Amino acid sequence: MKAQTSGSIITKLCALIAIVAVILVIYRLYQSSQIADMNSRGGPQPGEPILYQVFGISSTRPLIITVPKTKARANIESVDYTTHMASGRYNNGSSIGLVQIDIETVLPLGNHDEKAYSAIVVLSDGGNAQRYYLSTFSFDPSTEVVTLVDSEWIGDSISVDAIESKGDLIRMEVADDSSLSNSMNRVRSVIVAVSDHYQLSTLKNQR
Length: 207
Fold this sequence. Notes:
This protein is α+β, with helices and mostly antiparallel strands and 207 residues long. It has helices spanning 2-40, 50-55; strands at 63-66, 73-76, 78-80, 85-91, 96-109, 116-124, 131-140, 145-156, 158-166, 169-176, 187-194, 200-206. It contains two helices and twelve strands, in the order ααββββββββββββ. Strands 3-4-5-6-7-8 form a six-stranded antiparallel beta sheet. Strands 9-10-11-12 form a four-stranded antiparallel beta sheet, with no helix packed on it. Strand 1 and strand 2 (73-76) form a beta hairpin.
């Protein structure tokens, strides 16, 4: 009787393992077909997986980042192609805010195999000023997870007129968005150094 019971349990376990294996294969095939479809279109489109829209990464995983200079997390869920901003909400306990990644400022860092990037990240929590940061991101192909590595404050209520990456330096032309600023002194140059581990340090932030 015990032998029959043990045999029945083993049979059920084998059947369950087979079912799980089939589900995993179907899921992987679905992912592969989604990625192949993305690549065939030649560029990000509205409705594509968020990692592809923001960084051009062929993955269907979500984009969940740590909000700069906080412990809060934000799920970047949508991209507005009129403003070129990828957005998500966050709650840091004292306030609820909006975090945005400017997809037009995304730059690759290092060589292609490193899968690292920089971009301008904008925070707003209901106040008058928006805080602008230069942030670095790294992608782990084994987990398909993007991590925000470091952030450097650039300014409040500004506009980034130009941004480029040369070697381990990122250069920006930034305009202070203030009615008190005139056209002669409102533009300043910002230079930020990027370390081998994508840590940031500002070398210049002045007119």
